[in-house]
Amino acid sequence: MSNVTAVLNAPFGPFAIPEETYKKLVQLPKIQFIWGDKRDQSYSDVKLSKYAAELINGYGSNAVLKLGEVPGMSGTTHSAFADVNNEKVADVLDDLLKENGSDG
């Protein structure tokens, strides 16, 4: 069995995921990583998100990184749902689900 492995100079890792498990993830119609406007591209977890999106897209899925570009969201200091504006973050996720017919 082969693995999909991501190695970066981050506090955690390397990550090895069985390829069959990974292929289940990339079957999702769209995946988005959201970071607020208080993080820049040099932040290690943003780099990991960007790399993960590239890996996912390499398997034919549609992953995007949103870095401080979400209308109506400013002052976000952390990852999704870990800040005071988590209702706005939930609205962004809800929009993604609606766009892809996954909102039940």
From TrEMBL:
Gene3D superfamilies: alpha/beta hydrolase. InterPro entries: AB_hydrolase_fold. It comes from the Eukaryota. This is Uncharacterized protein. It comes from Calycina marina.
